[in-house]
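Morning!

This is the sequence you dropped in the shared folder:
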Amino acid sequence: MSENKLVAKGPVIDRIKEETNGLNITNEIKEQIIDYFESLLSQEIKKMSSLAVDVTGLQGKRTIQEKDWIFIRKILENK
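The structure's back. Tokens below.
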């Protein structure tokens, strides 16, 4: 993973503890969990970015507007 983390460890681990009623997680596993979410988020960012470039490119513009985002989100949610 890159040095620029996309996922903040504290809030993620806090939420997992909340969802699991205080389940303890070793530090090593915490890092693996964060790496897992980093990977998922990176994949989704790449998909969204690719669609955004395609949509805006077809329209000859460089700004994602609400209607574009609705269209992109529908595609992402159906994959």
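Headline: The first helix runs from residue 9 to 19.

More detail when I'm at my desk.
O.
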